[in-house]
Amino acid sequence: MPETPSRKIGLAVLISGRGSNLQSLIDACRLPDFPAEIKVVVCNKPEAYGIERAKQAGLPCVVISHKDFSSREAFEQAMLNALSDYDIDLICQAGFMRILTPHFITPWAGRLINIHPSLLPKFKGLHTHERAIEAGETEAGCTIHYVTEGVDEGEIILQRRVPILEHDTPDDLAARVLEQEHIAYPEAIRLLAK
Predict the structure, then answer these.
(1) What's the CA gap between 72 and 100, in Å, rounded?
(2) Is the pTM for the entire model greater than 0.70?
(3) CA pair distance 16, 6, nearest whole angstrom
(4) What is the rounded distance in angstroms from the CA atom of residue 82 to the CA atom of residue 103?
(5) CA–CA separation, 148 vs 102, rounded Å?
(6) 73-126, pLDDT tens digit by residue?
(7) What count of other Cβ atoms lies within 10 Å of the Cβ of residue 138?
(8) Is 145 labeled as catalytic in the residue annotation?
(9) Catalytic annotation, pick one of 66, 116, 129, 145
(10) Domain 9-117+143-161+181-193 sits in which CATH superfamily?
């Protein structure tokens, strides 16, 4: 007897830039067997190309510039208010370049994930590719992890690895890692949807 399809989990995707990981999630959500659907995209930069990707996909996109608020908490409250209009099970940070405070994290604890371009716990924060090359690492990669109050410290959900080649520049490495990010994020959502 065929299985009754279970409800797809609702995603909110937070972005700040070009939205290539958003695009990988949009593409994954178009697959009939993918267990999630994007309910809303939230962007903190009005000029971000990811907004165009959301529009092209017919997704609601809410632009909330952090510059319009006097505090992080006020900005985060505006995001929380916007998210409350949608049926969301999981928030995915996809190149969202703001460090979130407990004001935002606490109500979404265990349902808020991020993608980071290093093999955590190594190279938390920014400039991961330069730092990995300078450290003489032989491999790099990306990590999907839960968001907690500590930056890039939450429990790891999954990682994908790439070799660091002898003559790699940070841009070369970033491009190879990004290819794996586009595979890893949908893979992590499949895991979590189970």
Answers:
(1) 8
(2) yes
(3) 32
(4) 15
(5) 8
(6) 999 999 999 999 999 999 999 999 999 999 999 999 999 999 999 999 999 999
(7) 8
(8) no
(9) 116
(10) Formyl transferase, N-terminal domain (3.40.50.170)
